Amino acid sequence: MRFAYYPGCSARSTCAELNEATHRVAARLGLDLTQLESATCTGARELRAIDPVGFFTLNLRILALAEREGLPLMTICNTCTLNLLDAHAAFLEDTDLATKVNAALADEGLRYSGRTRISHFLWVLYEDIGLARLRALVVRPLTGLTVAAFYGCHITRPPQRYGFVDSRNNVALERLAELFGCRSIDYSGRTECCGFHTAAADERIAIKLTGAHIKSAKANGAKTMLTPCPLCHTVLDGFQREIEEDMGERLDMPVLHLPQLVGLALGLSPEELRLDRHMVEWQERWE
Amino acid sequence: MNATPVADGDARRLGQTENFDSLVARNTRLAVGDTVTVRVRRFAPEAGAQLQEFKVPYQRAMRVLDALNWIAEQAATDLAYRWFCGSKMCGTCAVRMNGREVLACWEAVEPEMTIEPLRNLPVLRDLVVDRAPFERKVASFEPWIERVAPYAGFPEPLSHKEMKSASKALDCIGCMSCYSACPVIGLGELTRFAGPAPLVQLGQTALDPRNDPAKVARALAQTDIFSCVSCYKCEEVCPAAIPIVTRVIEPLKARAAVLVPAMARHSNVLRRIVAARGRIDPGALVLGVQGLAALRNLPRIWRMLLRGKINPLRTVLGLKTAAAAAARRLLR
């Protein structure tokens, strides 16, 4: 099963462990990934607000790179996923925009015709690999590990677009965790926002919002949190000391990237999955 | 559980059926003669807050508002709640049902439901909230149009494209569901963020190309609009289906970037970094946005260094990525 692969900026810097883990897990899953080396940033939330044409151009170029390979595109970051989905939709809706972008892409011999399928790793597990195959690949059931799934915003909302329904219905992460033998919990932060997108300018929002989410996960018995988004991970894990200071209590909640949880169940070691790069130390926390 | 790969897009909808999340599914869970258990959060300044439970006989196609009306007529005649049109127009009946903002007049009942007032506004009594904080914010935005150019005569030379965003904002019924759902507003005084409902009201005139830019700039300067975390919670609860983030907040941010550039520092720095390097360097972003103040958190910088999460050499030398050439060309 072949995919063009777009890791995004975060998984190539702050969350480089996510990129490493994804490559290792993909090999176990039989996913053949072609990493798009010349792909730019998708513009996060900032570029799309202040420079829509630049935003669409960068995103459609990434889709054109995948199209040139003749491959569907796999992402591992929520915000990149939504940016690419939005750009793809705008390309199909706005022919003026499509013409303009393709004129800009022509400089390097690229052209987008609107055929790239965009799928996040979480969706690839369900829609391309399938749970039966995934179950067959489990060599180390994570029995007893209690997991709090944290979806993040941009692969669950905006509602009514791209197949998204009421975000509170999300169960994809919980069902996966259960397939690997984990116990999943319900808690108030499941589909809430980590506040990452204002954090470069003002961390207080992220610290306050995410503090409440981690606290709720802990109060409901979670031994680890699980997220499909490196931006959420940066706040949940990277800011956790500041969150603890702000709350005046110890949380000590490890946070797994989704491919790391899959990797553990598929028999990869914590070292291979680079759990040592997390700010909150991972220990074998089940039972 | 599905054993084989599911169809494209289905991973996003897995929980919809098991949560009975559709009008049809909800109505098929109840039949005439069943009982709906309604817990209402009652509040009076003199008595404080408590949940009061009512057993309401289900009627065909029953809405939350029908249940509230039944309670007010049969069980608690002093129940305070607002409604007027009963048909999704007036925007007065928004409440929270089982944790989610809904219009009472447009939401099917669930077999067990907890009805609470909206969040983020003072509760006056039971389900009635005080809209004054919202109204004060909107009034301070001078929410009307002042022309700079003289009236061009009828028909005005305005295209649909120019009015695309403002016209979406004009669908607002002012129900405050989004204001209640906004996590940043939920943080209270931490920011000066105006919140989704006031910004939609502002968008009605600020996104109209006829409006005086100086007046729009004055209003935008009060909004702290870049404190929006882009979580789309507001869109999820909007009964008028306004794309609040993409059609109101982002176009307003774009206006702010032009009219009040200091507000858009984060966005401008990010654009500059992407244009120069192709991808984001987190160190360069934080330094660019916060300046030397970014260095005050030395313990974290040290922790991140230890785990290889930041690379100061890359930040300082401005190392380019394989994507730099394309980004420079496309963002110039």
CATH architecture of the largest domain in chain B: Orthogonal Bundle
The coarse silhouette of chain B is globular
What's the total count of β strands of chain A? Answer: 8
Shape estimate of chain A: globular
- List the strand order in the largest sheet of chain A: 2-1-3-4
Radius of gyration of chain B: 25 Å
* Average predicted local confidence, pLDDT of chain B: 93
Could you tell me how far the N terminus lies from the C terminus of chain A, measured between alpha carbons in angstroms?
A: 36 Å
Detail the poorly predicted runs of chain A.
none
Characterize the quaternary organization of these chains.
Answer: heterodimer
Q: Uncertain spans of chain B, ≥5 residues at pLDDT below 50?
A: none
Q: What proportion strand of chain A?
A: 5-15%
Ends distance of chain B: 50 Å
Give the helix/strand class of chain B: alpha+beta
Helix content of chain B: 25-40%
